[in-house]
């Protein structure tokens, strides 16, 4: 298999782009693809300071690497969730730290157990049967917003790839989740000065491309999965989508890009009026909340102190 | 090409396959989905049409994550 550009040995075949590329041309292609994505959705500019949420996995470390190479001003944030099964959180942290050290890039680390007293698994078990991932998501969002606000970053960049986005899209479509469909986008605008703008610069890349990028760049990433993701529905949806992709290359890309285009053209123009959000300020942490005087994050910890 | 065997490694599993087949055929043979893995030989990414040589050690890396 030969590189479409130079005739050298190709390392990857991307039928949806009609491209087979060698390692060098693939790296080049990924960088220009991400640059185009950043510009197309007006994610950020060269003067903006960007906080990259890193997990130690292939997507977020590839993202950080790409943004550094493109010359953007980035700092990393690693949230240690306190997942002790097979040392998952500590091992992942080591990968994030090794990357930061090798690139001489600043990395902020928030250890949930050390900062708040408990790790995610303990918190979720007593949290009135709330599922692990929803507790985890809530905690991560809160911490990301806090760090982004304290550090004055222009945006938080996450490593979501096209497969992540399209798996969510399929789920939301199967359940006709109009509200979620309306909000799903490469850029999630800030709705409050203390809630960060979020961007997904890898949203046009397939998951196998972000993994291939990490491999050809020699980026070491954690290969083990979060033990709680094992039964995640996402994997199931991704496999189904890959079966479609195999029959007809480009299906995932067309599904996602077609969705974004349809939205731009107003096809998803739900009649529901944009609700004016009324913000309260959480009396404990100061973050905005639409609930009472305590935000969902602080309520989670209150429940720990006063179990029902 | 010659004849002989090669090793395929994925996470904690290991298989032996005949050389002379493509990486993609080997991935399918051991029961994995070619879309879910990438193949490395001597730590270098190789495309799935690459012919497996005798004595090769091919490491497969999972590319589908949940969460
Ligand atoms: S799989 Fe669930 S628990 Fe694990 S990191 Fe992701 S959201 Fe958190
Ligand atoms: Zn080339
Ligand atoms: Zn709060």
Structure description:
The complex is a heterodimer of chains A (308) and B (67). In chain A, helix 5 packs across helix 6 (132-151), helix 7 packs across helix 10 and helix 7 (162-174) crosses helix 11 (251-264). Chain A has helices at residues 23-40, 58-69, 88-103, 112-116, 120-126, 132-151, 162-174, 178-183, 207-217, 233-247, 251-264, 296-305; strands at 12-14, 19-21, 49-54, 73-80, 107-111, 155-157, 187-188, 198-199, 280-281, 288-289. Chain A has 308 residues and is an alpha/beta fold. In chain A, strands 5-4-3-6-8-7 form a six-stranded mixed sheet, sandwiched between helices. Chain A has a two-stranded antiparallel sheet with strand order 1-2. A two-stranded antiparallel ribbon of chain A has the order 9-10. Chain A has twelve helices and ten strands. The model of chain A has no long low-confidence stretch (mean pLDDT 93). Chain B is mainly β. Helix content of chain B is 10%, strand content 39%. Chain B contains one helix and five strands, in the order E-E-H-E-E-E. Chain B is globular and about 40 Å long. Chain B starts with a strand and ends in a 5-residue tail after the last strand. At the A-B interface, helix 9 and helix 10 of A face strand 4 of B. The structure holds iron/sulfur cluster and zinc ion (2 copies).
């Amino acid at each position: 298999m030969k590189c479409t550009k130079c005739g050298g040995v190709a390392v990857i075949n991307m039928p949806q782009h009609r491209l087979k590329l060698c390692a060098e041309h693939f790296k080049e292609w990924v960088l220009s693809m991400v640059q185009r994505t950043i510009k197309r959705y007006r994610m950020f500019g060269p003067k903006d300071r960007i906080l990259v949420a890193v997990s130690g996995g292939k997507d977020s470390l590839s993202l950080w690497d790409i943004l550094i190479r493109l010359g953007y001003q980035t700092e990393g944030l690693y949230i240690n969730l306190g997942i002790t099964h097979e040392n998952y959180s500590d091992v992942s942290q080591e990968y994030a730290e090794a990357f930061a050290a090798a690139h001489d890039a600043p990395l902020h680390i928030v250890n949930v157990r050390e900062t708040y007293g408990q790790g995610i698994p303990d918190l979720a078990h007593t949290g009135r049967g709330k599922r692990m991932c929803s507790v985890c998501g809530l905690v991560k969002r809160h911490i990301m917003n806090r760090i982004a606000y304290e550090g004055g970053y222009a945006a938080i960049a996450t490593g979501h790839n096209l497969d992540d986005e399209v798996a969510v899209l399929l789920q939301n479509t199967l359940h006709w989740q109009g509200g979620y469909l309306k909000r799903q986008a490469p850029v999630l605008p800030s709705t409050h000065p203390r809630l960060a703008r979020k961007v997904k610069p890898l949203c046009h890349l397939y998951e196998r491309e972000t993994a291939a990028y990490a491999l050809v760049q020699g980026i070491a990433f954690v290969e083990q999965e979060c033990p709680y993701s094992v039964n995640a529905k996402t994997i199931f949806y991704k496999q189904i989508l890959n079966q479609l992709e195999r029959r007809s290359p480009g299906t995932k890309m067309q599904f996602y890009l077609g969705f974004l285009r349809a939205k731009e053209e107003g096809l998803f123009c739900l009649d529901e009026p944009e609700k004016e959000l009324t913000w309260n300020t959480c009396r404990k942490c100061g973050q905005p909340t639409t609930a009472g005087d305590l935000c969902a994050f602080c309520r989670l910890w209150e429940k720990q102190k006063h179990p029902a | 090409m010659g004849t002989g065997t090669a090793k395929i490694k994925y996470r904690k599993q290991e298989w032996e396959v005949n050389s002379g087949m493509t990486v993609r055929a080997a991935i399918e043979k051991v029961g994995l989905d070619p879309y879910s893995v990438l193949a490395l030989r001597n730590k270098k990414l190789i495309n799935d049409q690459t012919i497996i040589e005798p004595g090769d050690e091919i490491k497969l890396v999972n590319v589908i994550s949940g969460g």
